[in-house]
Automatic annotation (TrEMBL), chain A:
Record key words, sorted: Dioxygenase, Oxidoreductase
Protein species of origin: Rubellimicrobium aerolatum
EC code: 1.13.11.3
Molecular-function annotations in GO: protocatechuate 3,4-dioxygenase activity
InterPro entries documented for this protein: Intradiol_dOase_C, Intradiol_dOase_core, Intradiol_RC_Dioxygenase, Protocat_dOase_a
Keyword Nucleus: no
Domain Intradiol ring-cleavage dioxygenases residue range list: 46-199
The name this protein goes by in its record: Protocatechuate 3,4-dioxygenase subunit alpha
Keyword Oxidoreductase: yes
From TrEMBL, chain B:
Gene3D superfamilies attached to this UniProt entry: Aromatic compound dioxygenase (2.60.130.10)
Domain of life, per lineage: Bacteria
Keyword presence, Ribonucleoprotein: no
Gene behind this protein: pcaH
Identification of the protein by name: Protocatechuate 3,4-dioxygenase subunit beta
Family: Belongs to the intradiol ring-cleavage dioxygenase family.
Source organism of this protein record: Rubellimicrobium aerolatum
Broad EC category: oxidoreductase
Length: 208, 240
């Protein structure tokens, strides 16, 4: 017998279930318990950059909206900086910029939305710049392990064309599933980002 | 600077997306493979939380929703440690929990099970791990409850657990089960985990050493998140 490697194994994932809101967004479950629910304000009041809205619907393999999904997003600020000690420029991030949000759809329609600032490009591997993007993580009843994906911006064509992650998607037409389309609504940019869990137009999900 | 990376997720210890015994997974599982991505700054960073985000009773589910008295049920302490795969404690990370009450009823607009709501029990809590990764909370042991999967399926008693870690790649939601519960081997959700040894790591043992005599029993639940990996030699230079 060789020596054994003494790494531990990650705890296995389990579905978040239909009542995930009780723990992560009790207001949506129908009661008030915490003084402050987390993840309600992604950018905060001081962040520079273009204020945008992002909205969409998550649909299942039959095309029905997934109304009990919970989404979390993680993003850089408008200069591509993350408020985290591993980012060499984290000290320059505006106070109150969390970069993280938790989003619950409307229980009737499945439509979700959030307000933030448009992120700047982020330094990728080997010194290659990544196009502006927002990292998504989805959990729900029926999803056994959280699904990761990325939102890119439809009005960043040149940056998207050079993005090292989009470039990894072998079937070129599938890259479109990660690109949100821009619409100007009452003077503000609204990006539409629908996520299809399965079937036609299936969103590209990432093993990060 | 060497790239800082996490150990890739071993998908063999996790449930696959498509597990037909758990019916809802059938239409909610991607059919195409995941795209593997090496970690960049977007993955090795993640949100951070501090005591200022939390209230003083947030880790005490016996008190944090008490209106007219204490909730009904078996009083327990749940404690443990959040570790990474290298065995190091994960400090100052947020652990969130939610659960049904002693009768198996959730405080949620969508739960219609006829077991009654407990007026003194909300069913959620949160806590930050300490410097060494330890955490604890106090609650009522949840009851089993029926669900519309098979015609007579019942969830074992369980507490949902959500953990952040220090990077977005460590984000994990799982469920804690209780030692000795005969519903565990009969549960289609527990059975989504392919390896029985991996499932055992979600079953919290009774821990009498941490019980409070004449007050609360205790269960111990350690949570392992992904660890960072070392690359001792790197041939590929930055910029190449």
């Amino acid at each position: 017998m060789p020596q054994t490697l003494d790494y531990l194994k990650e705890s296995p994932s389990q579905t978040a279930g239909p009542y995930v809101h009780i723990g992560l967004a009790p207001g949506a479950a129908g009661f008030s318990i915490f003084e402050r629910e987390l993840g309600q304000d992604i950018a905060g009041p001081n962040a520079e950059g273009e204020r945008i809205r992002v909205e969409g619907v998550v649909t299942d393999g039959t095309g029905a909206p997934v109304k009990d999904v919970l989404l979390e997003v993680w993003q850089a600020d408008d200069e591509g900086r993350h408020p985290h000690p591993r980012d060499p420029r984290h000290a320059e991030v505006a106070e109150g910029f969390r970069g993280w949000g938790r989003i619950i759809p409307d229980f009737e329609t499945g439509l979700w939305s959030f307000d933030t600032v448009k992120p700047g490009p982020v330094m990728g591997r080997h010194g290659r710049l990544m196009a502006p993007h927002i990292t998504f993580w989805l959990v729900a009843r029926g999803i056994n392990i959280g699904l990761n994906t990325r939102l890119y911006f439809g009005d960043e064509e040149a940056a998207n064309a050079a993005d090292p992650v989009l470039g990894l998607i072998e079937q070129v037409h599938r890259r479109r599933t990660l690109i949100a389309t821009r619409e100007d609504r009452e003077g503000r940019a609204v990006y539409r980002f629908d996520i299809r869990l399965q079937g036609e137009g299936e969103t590209v999900f990432l093993d990060i | 600077m060497k790239p800082f990376e996490y150990i890739p997720r071993d998908r063999g210890v996790h449930p696959p997306a498509y597990t037909p015994g758990y019916k809802t997974s059938v239409a909610r599982s991607p059919r195409l493979p995941l795209l593997s991505l090496q970690n960049s700054l977007s993955e090795i960073t993640g949100p951070t939380f501090g005591q200022g985000d939390l209230g003083p009773l947030d880790n005490d589910l016996i008190r944090n929703y008490a209106k007219t008295g204490d909730p009904v049920g078996e009083r327990i302490v749940v404690h443990g440690r959040v570790l990474d795969e290298n065995g190091r404690g994960v400090p100052h990370t947020l652990v969130e929990v939610w659960q049904a009450n002693a009768g198996g009823r959730y405080r949620h607009v969508k739960d219609t099970y006829f077991a009654p709501i407990d007026p003194n029990f909300g069913g959620c809590g949160r806590v930050l791990t300490d410097e060494q990764g330890f955490y604890h909370f106090r609650t009522i042991k949840p009851g089993a409850y029926p669900w519309r999967n098979g015609v007579n399926d019942w969830r074992p008693a369980h507490i949902h657990v959500s953990v952040f870690g220090q990077a977005f790649v460590q984000r994990l939601i799982t469920q804690m089960y209780f030692e000795g519960d005969p519903l565990i081997p009969r549960c289609p959700i527990a059975a989504t985990i392919p390896d029985p040894k991996a499932l055992e790591r979600l079953i919290a043992p009774l821990d009498l050493n941490a019980a409070i005599p004449l007050d609360c029993l205790a269960y111990k639940f350690d949570i392992v998140l992904r660890g960072t990996r070392s690359t001792l030699f790197e041939n590929r230079l930055e910029g190449n």
